[in-house]
Amino acid sequence: MASKLIFVTGGVLSSIGKGITASSIGTLLESRGLKVTIQKLDPYLNVDAGTMNPYQHGEVYVTEDGAETDLDLGHYERFTSATMKRINNVTSGQIYQEIIQKERKGEFLGGTVQVIPHVTNLIKEKIRQLMSTDVDAVIVEVGGTVGDIEGLPFLEAIRQLGAEVGRSNAIYIHVTYVPYVKAAGELKTKPTQHSVKELRAIGIQPDIIVCRAERSIPSAVKKKIALFANLKEHEVVTAKDLPTIYEVPLVLQKERLDELIIEKLQIPTNKEADLTQWKEVVNRIKKPTEGSVRIAIVGKYVELPDAYKSIIESFVHAGAANNVKVEIKWVNAEDLTTTPAEELLSDVHGVLVPGGFGERGIEGKIEAVRFARERKIPFFGICLGMQCAVIEFARNVAGLKGANSAEFDRDTPYPVIDLMEEQKGIEEKGGTMRLGAYPCVLKEGTFSFKAYGRKEISERHRHRYEFNNAFRETLEKAGLVIAGTSPDGKLVEVVEIKEHPWFVAVQYHPEFKSKPMNPHPLFVDFVKAAKAIRDSREVAS
Ligand code: GLN
């Protein structure tokens, strides 16, 4: 059987959880034994998300093969077992870049190059690249909302593709928002009506409407939406707000969304969806039996949690694994340069310094490391957080006064973090960092080895700077543990310190690989260490 296509579009407004809906459809189909993959079509003109500021776009999610993608791909991997690759995120920027390169080479043989058919053909080709005999369904999420000018070529392409593969091989699911207007005491269907109208004007008749709403949508309201959209009542599905995103597949299953999809696409499966394990995790997320731990994330985008999406989700998974709720205390790194760490961090059971770029907030992050190291509070450093841990250790333990990363201070006497050899001479910004999965070998007896339970691991990277080997001996002599390196021993990927409850700093991004059912071992052990500190403080007081 060739892959079936499930197109997911959005209406009314953005951020209504289209990505979670697409992911949950993946979960549901997988739970019926089907093989799925998910693709995101992003209408913006950036070639990828890599050059975008987190304020604009939230986290940049890195795939195994080193693509810098939209954060929705993180949800796709967390909700399904599909491995995301470069082809799973297609942007207008990529499409136009490819077309213009071809045009310059003269490959259009003198023809006029146009949105239809050239742009739409290439979009269709990108979707077809994921269709194969070993994938039962390709879920394609179109970014933005119906009605956006820049999204038109994508909608036109999915309209054409649906017609090409035929009725029972493609369906259109439209995700909309049904607001509750307090003053009227009513759920309002008008915005949904308008967005369906907009979709129809482009030539797409939705097969299913998923209504996001604060509360359950009563039958009468569903009927009204169905009437305007040419659908039956059961083809209008509610997805109301939930305490955790991981509950969405369960609720959509109750609304029989998977049954509907399978029926419409005539997918031969008689297997019932089995979500037993998924339910167990959701239960532990919602009702952890062992209280909560408080963990500080010391970063510079603290008012914008989307910038740290995968880290937040990793804590949800690790919390469930430890049967605790992880409360995140957002600490603005810059505040640590004006307010004593004692005041900002003494109530937390763990400190995490995440990745980042640029000088702002650096001294505050280094101060957070010092506090966690000296006060023996579990510490987890990720990417820039690892680099800050090395700088702190160099300055305050190894006595290298003024040590810094060459990224922030070109004239530092001790550049303990320096530009990677392979990065020297690179001028272009997009897609040029050290990106994607690389192997790493851990040292036995370390916190990391204990967490992973094995020596050889593979993790994803996104950086230009690295531990400077010129200082390796000095720092090791002062007590820094080099707990993980590249297999040839040349690149330092993990550092730790001893005589501490838990202090691990990694050059890579473990958060990209954590899943609800397969929580990342470093996050699990970090939360476990935080829990132990919490308990020991309770005994002491
Ligand atoms: N700015 C640092 C580097 O490029 C860290 C990058 C990161 O944290 N992702 O090496």
UniProtKB/TrEMBL annotation:
It comes from the Bacteria. It holds the Pfam family GATase. The keyword ATP-binding applies. GO terms for biological process: 'de novo' CTP biosynthetic process; pyrimidine nucleobase biosynthetic process. Its EC number is 6.3.4.2. One of its GO terms (molecular function) is CTP synthase activity. Pathway: Pyrimidine metabolism; CTP biosynthesis via de novo pathway; CTP from UDP: step 2/2. SUPFAM superfamilies: Class I glutamine amidotransferase-like (SSF52317), P-loop containing nucleoside triphosphate hydrolases (SSF52540). L-glutamine binds at residues 55, 356, 384-387, 407, 464. Catalyzes the ATP-dependent amination of UTP to CTP with either L-glutamine or ammonia as the source of nitrogen. Regulates intracellular CTP levels through interactions with the four ribonucleotide triphosphates. This is CTP synthase. It comes from Thermovibrio ammonificans (strain DSM 15698 / JCM 12110 / HB-1).
